[in-house]
Design a protein that fits this description.
This protein is an alpha+beta fold. It has four helices and five strands; from the N terminus they run ββααββαβα. The protein has two domains: 88 residues, no CATH class; 49 residues. The longest helix is centred in the C-terminal third of the chain and has 47 residues.
Length: 153
């Protein structure tokens, strides 16, 4: 088990990095965030609660692993203007395994999967229509070639 997920996209629904939104201003990590690992991270990690905007999974975003970010910039920088995070962990467990409070409902996960499958079905239908159009064009061309061939006989 690792403290962090080693990724910045959603581990639950695979939404991209831009779908993980900070829910608060970046701040130094607290004992409540890190639990028994607080001593290891207390002066080194800047974090913010974050959430996947697609499925609602809850994370702790790792903004910086260096105290100098707080020392130079303070804690008042606005998270809506380009503050990036370098990693995430699940919020309630401070590791790469989610707790029940970190996960979206099964209904939400089913809804996301249905949207994916529906979207994929539409993509495949569109591709099939393109193949049919090309096939029809080839059949028409072959018919034209056959007519010309028969006219030579």
């Amino acid at each position: 088990m690792s403290r962090n997920l080693g990724r910045t996209d959603c581990a639950v629904c695979d939404a991209g990095h831009d779908d993980i939104a900070l829910c608060e201003q970046p701040r130094p990590i607290t004992e409540r965030d890190a639990g028994r690992y607080y001593a290891e991270y207390k002066d080194r990690l800047i974090v913010a609660n974050a959430e996947c905007t697609t499925c609602g999974a809850k994370y702790l975003a790792w903004i910086s692993i260096h105290r100098t970010v707080i020392d130079r910039q303070g804690t008042n920088f606005d998270n809506s203007f380009g503050v990036r995070f370098c990693d995430i962990s699940f919020r309630s467990t401070f590791n790469d395994e989610p707790g029940p409070d970190d996960l979206p409902s099964l209904t939400k996960l089913r809804e996301i999967e249905m949207k994916r499958w529906t979207s994929r079905a539409h993509e495949l239908t569109d591709q099939l229509d393109e193949v049919r159009e090309r096939l029809d064009a080839h059949v028409a061309e072959l018919g034209s070639l056959r007519s010309r061939w028969e006219s030579y006989l």
